[in-house]
Specification:
By secondary structure, the chain is mostly helical. It is built from 10 helices and 3 strands; from the N terminus they run αββαβαααααααα. It has 2 domains: 2-107, no CATH class; 114-217, no CATH class.
């Protein structure tokens, strides 16, 4: 259900910690469900199960009545052979869409994906030709051909590339959900640590952001 209903709004019990609670969880002093904070289901799934409350199971759907009507419409459609969608079933779905859209408007929050957030962050100040040197710094190893390219760079070029890598990785990490952000990179971080961080992020985002290399370093002329 996640790819289809990730836009549903989930209400989160009031808490100052990192855990996500359902309104009414006795671990927190929470307001009524329609007055609490809320977020899209896709974001909760992205944040990971470690943030969910062990007692209440985490956030609950904010608009329960429209959701109940939609679930009933789906059940009837399925039991009647899935041949056609009746007008009342379509209306039930539209009521759920309206409730979720109104909730999102209340928060003044665009319902965007992680990939969109990353693209929006990395498109700012994207490097040009200097991106190739930065890419070389994080991909060169003792056993691949990038090592020879790295050796061709002057000390000044290496330092500029290292600083660029650090800035681009920091920009990328700022777009990630808090639960996925590693510790901030120090200004003087060396190239070896940058390479490790780059590989970690590349692995983490390989499914959701397949063109991460070009978003980070532009790589003009790459095939």
């Amino acid at each position: 259900m996640a790819p289809l209903l990730g836009w549903l709004r989930l209400a989160v019990g009031d808490t100052s910690g990192e855990r996500l609670h359902s309104p009414g969880c006795y671990s927190v002093q929470s307001r009524p469900v329609l007055l609490t904070e809320h977020m899209p289901w896709w974001l909760v799934m992205l944040e990971g199960w470690r943030r969910l409350c062990g007692r209440c199971g985490g956030p609950s759907v904010r608009d329960l009545l429209p959701l109940a009507g939609f679930v009933a419409a789906v059940d009837v459609w399925r039991d009647r052979g899935r041949n056609r969608i009746e007008r009342w079933q379509q209306a039930a779905f539209q009521r759920l869409l309206v409730a979720s859209a109104a909730a999102r408007a209340q928060m003044m929050e665009p319902d965007i994906t992680l990939a969109w957030r990353i693209v929006a962050a990395l498109i700012e100040n994207a490097p040009a030709e200097e991106g190739w040197a930065a890419y070389t710094v994080v991909t060169a190893t003792d056993w691949n051909y990038k090592r020879k390219e790295l050796e061709k760079l002057t000390p000044q070029q290496r330092e500029a590339a290292r600083a660029l890598v650090r800035d681009r990785l920091s920009t990328l990490e700022s777009a990630l959900p808090p639960s996925q952000r590693p510790l901030p990179l120090p200004q003087a971080v060396d190239a070896k640590v940058l390479g490790q961080r780059y590989r970690h992020l590349h692995k983490l985002l390989e499914d959701s952001v397949p063109q991460l290399d070009r978003l980070l370093f532009t790589l003009p002329g790459a095939v």
